[in-house]
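[RESIDUES AND BACKBONE]
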Amino acid sequence: MSSAIGLAFPLIVRELLDAAFVRGDGELLNKLALLLVVIFAAQGAMSFLQVWLITSVAERVIAKLRSELFAHLIRLSPGFFAEQRTGELTSRLSTDLTLLQSVMTYQSTELMRQLVYLVGGLAMLTITHPRLTVTTLAVVPVVVGAAFIFGRAMRKASTIVQDRVADAMGTAEEAFSQIRIVQSFTRERAESAHYDAQLADVVDAAIYRARVRGVFFGVITFAGFAGVAAVLWQGGRLVLAHQLTGGALVEFLFYAFFVAAAVGALGQLFGAYQEAIGAARRVFDLLETRPTIADPGKHEPLPKPVRGDVRLTNVTFRYGAELPDVLHDVSFSIAPGEIVALVGPSGAGKTTIASLVPRFWDVQQGLVTLDGIDVRALSLGDLRGAIGIVPQEPALFSGTVRDNIAYARADATDAEVDSAARAAHAMEFIDRLPDRMNTRVGERGVKLSGGQRQRIALARVFLKNPAVVILDEATSSLDTESEQLVEQAMEELLRGRSTLIIAHRLSTVRRADRVIVLEGGVIVEEGSHEELIASGGLYSRLHRAAGLSLTA
C-alpha cells in the first residue's frame, strides 16, 4: 500500500506542473500541493505498519528456527560433536541466521516495494507513452543476463565467507574454553596469530565477494540509468516536436526513475538473496543431519522398578568404518546391586564400554542389554533415565549450585535438592558459600574446587536416583581431604545400585565385588582383587608398577 501510494506522486506532479506552467491555475496548484502532503502522510503511516508487522513476523520466525536448530543439534549423538567444532555450530546459530533475519525483514519489504514500483511504474509508463516505454524496457535483458551470470558466483562466494567466519569462531571458542592451558603455556601470542590468520582469510573471501557484487551492481546501475538517459533524449525530442507536454515528460521521467531504481534495487536484493541461500543451506544441512543414535520407531517399555541387570554379549565396536576395532568380542555382566570395576592400560577400551551402556554409541556386533532388553529397543529417555553418570571431570553449568544439582530432575523440590546435597556431603561447603544454594558457580564451575564440583556431580546422581551408576573414578585428581568426603558420598551412592567403575585407585578396586581387566579391547582377567593379585597376571603387574594406584 505504501508503494502503491508512492506511484501516485509523479501523476500529481504532472498535474501540478501543468497547472502552473500550462493552465496558470493557482487554486488547482494549492489543492494539488495539499494532496501531496496527504499522500506523504498516508505513505508514512503505511511504512510504519509495514516495518512493525514484517519485523514482528520475521523475529518470531527466526526465533523459531533458532529454537528448532538448537533442539535438533542437542539431540544428535556424541559422535557428531566429536567431528564438529563448537564454534562452527554456534556460528550457524548466530551469524547464518542473522543473515537470514536480514533477508526476512529489510530485504523482504524492499523486495515487495521494488516489485510494486517496477510493475506499477511500467504500467504507468505504458499508459503515459508506449513508445518511450519500449526504450525503458531495453535494459531488462541486460539485467536478467547479469543476474544469471553473477548469481551463482555470489552464492558460492557468500558460502565461503560464512565457512571461514565459522572457522574463526571455532578457533576463538576453543581458546576461550581452554584459557588456562593457553595461558599456562604462554600461547596467547600464537593463538592471536592463528586467529588473525583466519580473520585474514575471512577478509580475503569477503573482498572477493565484494568484487563479484560490485561488478554485478555496476552492470545493473549502468543499464538502469543508461535507459533513463535514453528516455531523456527521446522525451526531449518529443517535447521539441510538441508531442509531449513538459509536465508529462517530468511524469514519465519520474516513472522511468522508479523503474530504473527498482531494477537496480532488485539486482542488489538478488545478490543478498544468493548470499542468504548459502547461509540457509548451511543451516538446513544441519537440520537434515540424522542422528546416528535415535529412538526406535516402536520401543519396548522398561519394566518398573528397574533392577539394573546389565549385560554385554560378544560386543565388538569401532568408532569408524576406517578405524580398527576398540573392543573385540567382549562379554560380561553386572548383576543387580553388584559393583564391577574396569581396569587396564590406557586405550584398553574402558571408557568405550562405559559409553555403550547408555547408548552414546551403538555396537557393530553383539548385544548390550538392560534387564534383558536390548538397549537399542528402549527409548533413550527410559534407558538414560535409569543410568546415572559421574565423570572424572564433572561438568557444571554457569547457574547456581541449586540449578546444577536440580539439573538431574526439573521437577525436584528444594527439600529434595537439599537432601541430595547432604547425601553427597556437599552441604559442608555449600553452607559456607556467600549465597549458599543460590551462589553462582561460574562457567563450568570455575569458582569451585575440584572436590566441590565432584560432590555437586554426586548430588546430581543422588537426586536422579538411578538403578545403574557409571563412575569414572571421581577421586583420582583430588586432595586427601576432598577425596575422603567424596569417598564417603560414593559409599552411600553405590549402596544397592548396579555400578560400573572405571577404576584408577586401589581403594576403588577393593570396593568392587568383581574386577575386569582389559588389554587391547579384550578381557584378559576377571575376579576379585585378591584373586587377581595372586594370579600374577596383568592386574598384578599394574598393581606392582603403580604402587597404591592403578594406571588410568
Remarks:
- The domain at 2-287 is CATH 1.20.1560.10 (ABC transporter transmembrane region fold).
- The chain has three domains: 2-287, 302-386+494-552, 391-465.
